[in-house]
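We emphasize that the prediction below concerns an isolated chain of 581 residues; any contacts that depend on oligomerization or on bound cofactors are therefore not represented. The input was used exactly as deposited, without trimming of termini.
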Amino acid sequence: MAKKLMVASMALAVALTASACGNSNNGGDEASTNGNTSSNTTNNAASTDNTTANNTAATNESAPKDKVTFSLFNGVANAPDGNTNETTIGKALEDQTGVNFKIEHLVGDLKTKIGTMIASNKYPDVIDPDAGIDQLLDAGAFIDLTPYIDKYPNIKKVYGPYLSRMKAADGKIYYLPFSTQVGAYTADPNINQGAFWVQRRVLKEAGYPKIKTMDEYFKLIEDYVNKHKDENLIGYASLTNDWRFFATSNQPMHLAGYPNDGNVEIDMNTHEAKTYYTNDDTKRWLQALNTLNSKGLFDKASFVDNYDQYIAKLSSKKVVGFFDYGWQIANANNVLKDAAKKDPAQDDFVYQPMPITFDGQPDQLLDPPGFVNNRGIGITVSAKDPERIMQYWDTLLSEDNQILRSWGIKGETYEVDDKGRFYRTAEEIAKIDEPFNLKFGFKYYAWDWPQYGTNSTLSDGNALAPGLQPEVFQLSLTDKDKEILGKYGVQTYAAQFATPQDRPWYPAWGIPKEQGSPQQIWETQKDEVTKKYYPKLVLAKPADFDKVWQEYLGAFGKLDTAGYEKWYTEQIKTILDQVSK
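Result of the prediction step, given as a C-alpha cell string:
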C-alpha cells in the first residue's frame, strides 16, 4: 500500500536550517548545519569530551557488544563514501553501540538511483533520500518507526513535540526529520541561506559600496569584468542541475523581499499564497539574466553543468558573482577560506554575501524559525535489525553525543571557560579545515542523521552549533573578515541582512504533499516547463525575449495554478488557526 504523507502543521518554536538541507525544490535542502565557522556552514563544528562520551557508554548498559555494519545511502553528494567508524565521532559511537554504517553517497541522478532500488526491491538498511523521499514512501520502502519511538528516551525527547506532525495519512511514522528544535532558538551570525555573493576583490576595488539593488549588483560585476578582460572571468554563474534548479528559479521571490517558502509568496496580511513564475518579478529577473548574457557576462554552461562542475567553477576563483544558499556552496567556500587562512592574499577570492533586492526594499533572506517535515531518514524494509539502528540513533541523540558531533572533544576541538561557556582557541579553529572535518567526522555527522536542529541550545545554555556561539564566531574571523565587516559597519554577516519576520507556516515548501496529488503533479509539471523555457529565455537574443516569454506563459497557462494556490492558502490558514489556539 502506498505510504502517503498527510498535511502537517508547522509551529513557531521550531528551527529550520541547512537548509536546506532546502528542497521541495525550491525549498533549498535545509541541510545546513551552520556549525563550523572556521570553514563555514555545512561542516558543523561541534563536540564533546572523552569523559562525556564514556559516561554515555556507561549509562547505556544494554548496548550490544558485538559489532555490526549497516548500509546507508545518502541522497546528496556531499562527502566521500566511507565507514563511520573510520572517523573519530563514528568510532566513539561504535564503541558505545557496536554499530558502524557504511555510507554511499549519491552519484548521478537521484530519481534514477532510487528507481533502481525500488525495481529490485532491495534497499540499503537506512536511506536519507532527500528529494527522492516521496518515491520511497509510495513504494512502501520504509518501515513504521512508531512501535520503536516510545522505547528510546532520547528519541522521544527530541521528537516528542513533533510526533503528531510526523505521522503519515495512515497514522504511521516512516522517517525522522532533521530540523527539530531543542531548547531555546539560537540565531545564526553567518549566512547559510540565500544571498547574492561576490568576490571580495570586487568590493575592495570599488571602495566597498553599500549596494542594495539588483541593478547595482550586476553593474558592480560588469564594471569589474570589463576592467579585467585579460583574466577570462565568468561574470555570473547559476546552478540549475537536477533538483537544485531552485537556485536559479527562487530569485524573483527573494528579490521581491520574500523568504524561501518555495513555490509561493505568502501575503503577510491576507495570508494568501500566490505563485510567482509568471508575474512581472520573474520576467524582470529573467530579462536581467538575458541582458547579462548578451553582454557576455552570464555563464552559458550554467544550464548544462552538474553540481560538481558548478562547485569546481566557484572554487576556481574565476566566477565573480552568483546567487545561492550558503549550505549549498559550503564546499567551495571552505576551499577558498582555507586558502585565505594560509595566504591572506587569497582572501580576495573569498565570496562575500550581499542582501540584494529588486529596488532596495528590506530583504527576507534570513530564515525565521521553522520545521521541515518532508525530509528525513528512514529504516528500510530490507533492514534485518531495525532495533540496533534505533538504539544507535537513541545513543546519538543523547546530549553528550550531540555535543560530540557538534563541538568535538574537549581539549582537542573546544574548551570550556570558568563560566561553563564553550569556545575554541585560535589554534583549534585553524586546524578544523576540510580534511579535518572529514577525518574527525564533522562532515559526516553535520546533517543527514537524527539530531538536534542546528539552532538548538544545550541544557547549560551553550549553542549546539559552534558557529552560532558568539565567542566562536568572533574568534573564527580572520583579520580580513573583520576588515570587510568593519567596512560595512557590522560585526556579523547576518547583521547586514534584515531581521526575519515570524511566519508560523515557514517554510511553506516543507508542508507535505501526497504523492500523486494535484499539488505534487503541479510541481512536477512546473519543473518541466521552467527547465524547458528558462534556458531559452536567458539565452535568447534580447529582441526575441518577449516572444519567448509569451510562449512560456502559454505553456505555463496549461497548469492548474489556481488550484495549487488555493490548496496552499488553505494549508497556511489551517496552520495559523492551530497556532492561535
